[in-house]
UniProtKB/TrEMBL annotation:
Record keywords, A-Z: ATP-binding, Nucleotide-binding, Transport
Domain of life the protein comes from: Bacteria
UniProt GO molecular function: ATP binding; ATP hydrolysis activity; transmembrane transporter activity
UniProt name for this protein: ABC transporter ATP-binding protein
Key word Phosphoprotein present: no
PANTHER family: ABC TRANSPORTER RELATED, IMPORT ATP-BINDING PROTEIN
Pfam family, one: ABC_tran
GO CC list: membrane protein complex; plasma membrane
Species per Swiss-Prot/TrEMBL record: Streptomyces lincolnensis
InterPro entries cross-referenced by the UniProt entry: AAA+_ATPase (IPR003593), ABC_transporter-like_ATP-bd (IPR003439), ABC_transporter-like_CS (IPR017871), ABC_transpr_LolD-like (IPR015854), MacB-like_ATP-bd (IPR017911), P-loop_NTPase (IPR027417)
Protein's UniProt keywords contain ATP-binding: yes
């Protein structure tokens, strides 16, 4: 009973996830046995040195990529068992994404960009819902503006409104403040924090920045494709302290293809 209740309260659950890539004559173990549960309504940051597997973890958890082996569950759904078509639908309807590059369509207004996921899903696009999503990110008065008429922070807010319009179970963010100055980055992070605190949103964010990670409830550290501990409620200084030892470590996960399990 306890176990079942635990399972239901997890937004995302990864069990022994491996992801290998063939790269030239070598195999890269981008993820090397990751087991991780992310409870609903929480904000998790994923940190680690460059090449430690952060983006791969995010992509596998979000159904953008398939693990070589292991299990990934979004709520009750096992992602690894889904066909491409079902996975595409799941990405459209149950998860949201924001990236470092805002990826807005330049010819569309903020409102049209925000409405895009509903249009792609051939769902109705109630104007009130689009405005509500823009209001949530503080941009109700910019609905008619095109991306070139908006600042970087405002463009990322539109990207956030677009990610939220389908009311996703999990919002995945890959370096969402990487292209922003620190003040604008702070506004976006405060917004993410508010989404978790005032709603039922679950956020998973990959970042290099200890200050950004300090907005999360929990920081999970990845090194060489494996989880190397975590920190809850850590300050930017504490998080940076944990990272300091790893940043200088040389990656050690490339093996000859012949030594590795097939990709
Ligand atoms: N499509 C791919 N083909 C081959 N190797 C890949 C591919 N994607 C990722 N890798 C390798 O897997 C490892 C993990 O990459 P990943 O991008 O997940 O790391 P990261 O921690 O997000 O890095 P960074 O912080 O630099 O963005 C790296 O060694 C990378 O070169």
């Amino acid at each position: 009973m306890g176990d079942e209740a635990d399972m239901r309260s997890q937004a995302i659950e990864l069990r022994d996830v491996h992801r290998r890539f063939a790269s030239g004559g070598a195999a890269v173990a981008a993820l090397d046995g990751v087991t991780l549960a992310l409870p609903r309504g929480t904000f998790t940051a994923v940190m680690g040195p460059s090449g430690s597997g952060k983006s791969t973890l995010l992509h596998c958890a979000a159904g953008l990529d398939r693990p070589t082996s292991g299990s990934v569950r979004l709520g009750e759904t096992e992602l690894t068992a889904l066909s491409e078509r079902r996975l595409t639908l799941l990405r459209r309807e149950r998860v949201g994404f924001v990236f470092q590059a805002f990826n807005l369509l330049p010819s569309l207004t903020a409102a049209q960009n925000t409405a895009l996921p509903l249009r792609l899903a051939r769902r109705r696009v109630p104007r009130a819902r689009v405005l509500e999503a823009l209001r949530e990110v503080g941009l109700a008065d910019r609905a008619g503006h095109r991306p070139s008429q908006l600042s970087g922070g405002q463009q990322q807010r539109v990207a956030l409104a677009r990610a939220l319009i389908t009311r996703p179970e999990v919002l995945f963010a890959d370096e969402p403040t990487g292209a922003l100055d620190s003040r604008t980055g702070h506004q976006i992070l405060t917004l993410l924090r508010t989404l978790v605190d005032t709603g039922s949103t679950t956020i998973v964010m990959v970042t290099h920045d200890p200050t950004a990670a300090s907005y999360a409830d929990r920081v999970v550290f990845l090194v060489d494709g494996r989880v190397h501990g975590e920190l809850s409620g850590g300050s930017a200084r504490e998080i940076a302290g944990r990272m300091a030892g790893w940043e200088t470590k040389a990656p050690s996960k490339t093996t000859r293809l012949s030594e590795a399990t097939p990709c």
